[in-house]
Specification:
This is 3-hydroxyisobutyrate dehydrogenase. It catalyses: 3-hydroxy-2-methylpropanoate + NAD(+) = 2-methyl-3-oxopropanoate + NADH + H(+). It is built from 14 helices and nine strands. By secondary structure, the chain is α/β, with parallel strands linked by helices. The strands form two sheets. It has a six-stranded parallel sheet with strand order 3-2-1-4-5-6, with helices on both faces. The protein has a three-stranded mixed sheet with strand order 7-8-9. The radius of gyration is 21 Å and the shape is globular. Bound molecules: nicotinamide-adenine-dinucleotide. Nicotinamide-adenine-dinucleotide binds near residues 11 and 82.
C-alpha cells in the first residue's frame, strides 16, 4: 500500500507540516514538494534530510507545478496546499487540473483521482468556485477545504486542529485521517457542504481578532487606573474576562512562567502576527457580507487593525503587541 503525497507552499506553516509527513513516510510512500521560492524548497529539503537521511529516495522537490502530474507515476493520492491567498490556490489547482487534462485525456474518467486538501486560510467564495471547477473538469478528483488553527507553534509540534468540510465524523476516510494525524491532533468535521471548514475557521478568527483588541483596551484601561498589570492579568484569568487572548496569549510580559514561551515574554516575537489577524478579520467581514450577514464589530475592528498594520513593528509581531501599540497611540 503505497501513498504518494504532494505539498505546495513551504512557508512558516507548510515547512513544518511537510516535515511531519516526511518523518512519517512508510518505506514505499513518497513526498513531492514545491514552492515558488526555490530557496524555501531547497532549505526545506536540506533541513529535513539533515535529521532523517533520504536513503529510500522518498522526497523530491519539484521545479514547476505541472510536474506534480507529469513527473509522478502512478499519480499522487493527496496534494496539500498551504499558500497565502485565494488567488494562489486558484492558480495552483488550475495548473494541476489543466496539466492532468492535457496529459491524460484517454483516462480522464477512470481510476482514483487526486484529493486536493487546501489548508490555507482563504475566502469562501473562491474556495467554493475552485471546488466546483475541479468537480466539473475531473469528477473523480476532489477538493476540500481543511484550514488549520494552532499557528506556527502548532505546526512545529504537530498539534494543529483541522476544520474539515464535507465530512461528518464517520465520513473522514482512514487515509485522510492518517495524513492529517501526522500534522495535527484534532480533526473537526464541520458538515457536509463545501466551505464549512473555512466558515468555522473565519468565524473563530473573527472572535479572536475582536477579543484581542478588547483585551489590549482592557489592560490599557487598568493601567490608566494605576493597577498592577501582572496582578490584573491573574485576576482576569479567573474572572469573566478570561479568553485565549487574555490568558493563553496574555499581552503583559512576566505574568506566566518562562517555559510557557508566551510571545509577550519575547518582545512579541513569534506567535500569530497582527497582519495575519487582520487578514482573517478582513476575510471574515467580506465573507459575512457575501452571506448577507453584517458583523457588528467587523468594520470597527478592521479600522483599528488597519491602523496598527500601518507600522511594520506592530504588523509583523504577535497580535498581543496591540496592547503596546494602544499605549502609544494618540487618538485624533
Ligand atoms: P507564508 O507566507 O510563510 O508561506 C506561504 C508559502 O507559499 C511561501 O513560501 C510562498 O513562497 C509560497 N507560495 C506562494 N504562492 C505560491 C504558489 N503559487 N505556488 C507555490 N508556493 C507558493 O504563509 P504561512 O504563514 O505559512 O501561511 C500559509 C497559509 O496558512 C495562509 O493562508 C495563512 O493565512 C494560513 N495560516 C497561517 C497561520 C500562521 O500562524 N502563520 C496559521 C493558520 C493558518
Amino acid at each position: 500500500n503505497r501513498t504518494r503525497y504532494g505539498f505546495i507552499g513551504l512557508g512558516q506553516m507548510g515547512q513544518h507540516m511537510a516535515k511531519h509527513i516526511y518523518n512519517n513516510l512508510e518505506p514505499t510512500d513518497r513526498l513531492y514538494v514545491y514552492d515558488t521560492n526555490d530557496k524555501a524548497a531547497n532549505t526545506f529539503v536540506d533541513s529535513v534530510t539533515s535529521t532523517k537521511a533520504d536513503t529510500n529516495h522518498q522526497l523530491k522537490a519539484l521545479k514547476l507545478i505541472p510536474e506534480f502530474i507529469t513527473d509522478v507515476e502512478p499519480q499522487l493520492d493527496f496534494i496539500i496546499t498551504m499558500v497565502p491567498e485565494g488567488k494562489h490556490v486558484k492558480g495552483v489547482i488550475s495548473d494541476l487540473v489543466e496539466t492532468y487534462k492535457l496529459t491524460n485525456p484517454p483516462r480522464l474518467e477512470l481510476g482514483k483521482g487526486i484529493t486536493f486538501i487546501d489548508s490555507s486560510t482563504i475566502d469562501i467564495p473562491t474556495s467554493v468556485d475552485v471546488h466546483r471547477y475541479v468537480r466539473s473538469e475531473l469528477p473523480h478528483f476532489d477538493f476540500i477545504d481543511a484550514p488549520v488553527s494552532g499557528g506556527t507553534a502548532g505546526a512545529r509540534r504537530a498539534t494543529l486542529s483541522f476544520m474539515l468540510s464535507r465530512a461528518n465524523q464517520e465520513a473522514v476516510s482512514e487515509p485522510l485521517r492518517k495524513l492529517l494525524g501526522y500534522m495535527g491532533k484534532n480533526i473537526f468535521p464541520c458538515g457536509s457542504k463545501h466551505g464549512v471548514g473555512l466558515a468555522a475557521k473565519l468565524s473563530n478568527n473573527y472572535l479572536l481578532a475582536v477579543t484581542n483588541l478588547a483585551v489590549a483596551d482592557s489592560f490599557q484601561l487598568a493601567n490608566s487606573f494605576g493597577l498592577d498589570l501582572k496582578e490584573y492579568a491573574k485576576l482576569v484569568s479567573v474572572l469573566t474576562g478570561k479568553s485565549w487572548a487574555s490568558v493563553d496569549n496574555c499581552p503583559i510580559p512576566g505574568v506566566y512562567p518562562k517555559e510557557m514561551k508566551l510571545p509577550a515574554d519575547d518582545n512579541y516575537e513569534g506567535g500569530f502576527v497582527t497582519k495575519l489577524t487582520r487578514k482573517d478579520l478582513v476575510l471574515a467581514t467580506e465573507c459575512a457580507k457575501a452571506n448577507n450577514r453584517f458583523l457588528y464589530l467587523g468594520d470597527i475592528g478592521r479600522h483599528w487593525y488597519d491602523r496598527a498594520c500601518d507600522r511594520p513593528q506592530y504588523a509583523n509581531r504577535d497580535l498581543g503587541v496591540l496592547y503596546e501599540w494602544l499605549g502609544h497611540l494618540e487618538v485624533d
